[in-house]
Amino acid sequence: MGTRLQSVVADVPKPMAPVGGxxxxxxxxxxxxxxxxxxxxxxxxxxxxxxxxxxxxxxxxINIEYCVEQHPLGTGGGIKQAxxxxxxxxxxxxxxxxxxxxxxxxxxxxxxxxxxxTLALSHEKNFDRYGTVQFDEQQRITAFKxxxxxxxxxxNGGIYFLNKDIFQKIETLHHINxxxxxxxxxxxxxxxxxxxxxxxxxxxxxxxxxxxxxxYQRANxxxxxxx
Length: 227
What we know:
Blueprint: E1 18-19, E2 22-23, H1 24-34, E3 39-44, H2 48-55, E4 58-59, E5 62-68, H3 74-83, E6 90-93, E7 97-99, H4 103-113, E8 117-127, E9 132-135, E10 141-145, E11 150-162, H5 166-174, H6 184-190, E12 198-203, E13 207-209, H7 213-226
Parallel strand pairs: 3-5, 8-12
Antiparallel strand pairs: 1-2, 4-5, 6-11, 7-13, 8-11, 9-10
């Protein structure tokens, strides 16, 4: 819903915030096209029709399906529902962050580690907005730390590669049914860190989160030159 952005962008879902005259999501499609992605599922809820009216069922030669949340499902519930429209293991991207990584490297890291989930981590300096991610010598993630000021550290960059059956695996392990609404970060990544093989793919690439007005304005300055 982009509540923190409403002082500068009103009446559109956050991924539709205009950057250089185009919706932020437009640049995600350019990124995916560059990496050869041909099929995308958009998990939509708040003002879904704004996104559907703009992108329709095909954009930049990428086929689009829509997974509509009738009620907010949280990041976990949203991903779980969207994966049901996928017929294979898939990349998952946030709709409000841009991380200019090599998806091939992320995929290779995932396969080589035989992981359940692989997170693209961004190396950041002088920040207090993000929690940090710790990992061992094999790049298996060992801990997620709370937000605090750090001069440098690795943060979750909002791009994952997930095995399609990851949620089913959790339900089988614990003999439970996951609720409709849950957080992917707390209920899967943090809670299942010992049961699942969750790996890190490390990237020192351009990263931006448009969730606050300052960084949204920065994207408006930087994106026209980048694209």
